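[SOLVED] Need 3D model of a four-part complex

Original post:
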Amino acid sequence: MGKNYWISDKPLVIQEVVDLVTRRNAGAINTFIGTVREFTKGKRTLYLEYEAYKAMAEKKLEEIGHEIKEKWPEAETAIAHRVGRLEITDIAVVIAVSTPHRADSYEASRYAIERIKEIVPIWKKEHWEDGEHWIGDQKETKQGIPAKGDASK
Amino acid sequence: MGKNYWISDKPLVIQEVVDLVTRRNAGAINTFIGTVREFTKGKRTLYLEYEAYKAMAEKKLEEIGHEIKEKWPEAETAIAHRVGRLEITDIAVVIAVSTPHRADSYEASRYAIERIKEIVPIWKKEHWEDGEHWIGDQKETKQGIPAKGDASK
Amino acid sequence: MNQILFFAGLREQAGEESIELDVNGRSIGELKQTLSSRYAIDKVKESMAAVNEEFVQDEEIIKEGDTIAFIPPVSGG
Amino acid sequence: MNQILFFAGLREQAGEESIELDVNGRSIGELKQTLSSRYAIDKVKESMAAVNEEFVQDEEIIKEGDTIAFIPPVSGG
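Solution:
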């Protein structure tokens, strides 16, 4: 792979992402795995389609890694996001963060997923029995640049 | 495997633990992986030995799963802990928690690791260049039963 | 010339993944106006914009050769 | 008879993984006292106790056939 942040149209392998952050000085690795859920608010999803502005999305994932490094200097981060058609239970995203101590691994991993939902140009289209729709979770829906660190809370 | 909570003297496989909690109604899986760290407060660890009161430890891991179910009714949990000799970067524990939404997966996973450090009869012995020592992180060091939910904070 | 990229729902509204326009010297805000009024791609108004893969504000002036992407509300993760 | 289990540093101090003693009717606190004074296993004082794999307090009365485990401060994870 050679890099820690990537978009792929192939199934994601958790172990590959974890391997990128495993190191002698980490005692804790937190991973977040986003999977395709069947029911949302009682509505049944048949499958999802993810689309990315690939080059920019990989840059933004890497930028999230840099933001994490600023906040948690000892953290190592790797993030992979899948695109294309995903079935129920398929993995859409894998985040892995290693840190010397456990509290930081949870916080940094959480920071990563919140930031992905703000600044990374990836979109999902839900396909239901009675239609389909592009989903927009984005917090910043008006014009403007998503602020660094808004997700930290 | 047939069960979600176990002690093993074999290397732990992250994917196996994650598979136990993957399901159609989960959109989020948080995993915590505890690995053997080389340096702690400047002191170099050569390797670790973990020992467990196996039958009771498995029961207590399962009990943590029940506590999580009470607090987060939609969560599914699996926990594996290794015993025996572990080298630097080896995995000592894998926790996986799936929930419909991501915030709960982080909180429940964090709850699990904190409770493991309180109530599960597993011990580690650090082997350094100049000696060895059984480590006791336990919060409750006097007599008494660890209270349910003390770790929640 | 400038390449203008559309994604997701915006791509569907535009009917194209990208178009070429010469918008050298114009602002992003002006380009949004043009796309919305002349090409009926009004979802650009709710979109963020990126020039050469970096987010920019509506005031940003476009230069020759810049690639402009309109980023509708994202939903990764 | 009762089986008494020792773990980790406590096992090393005891020199045994387990011993058999008839402590039917005695309390955990009394057993700790005995182990500490008569067998010099004083680490039992800083340990929790479990009877048949459940944590108990020092007041717990031991019954025939119970397995008692002394649980020094745990350090899993």
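Edit: The beta strands of chain B are 5-8, 28-35, 39-40, 43-52, 76-82, 84-87, 91-99, 122-128, 131-135.
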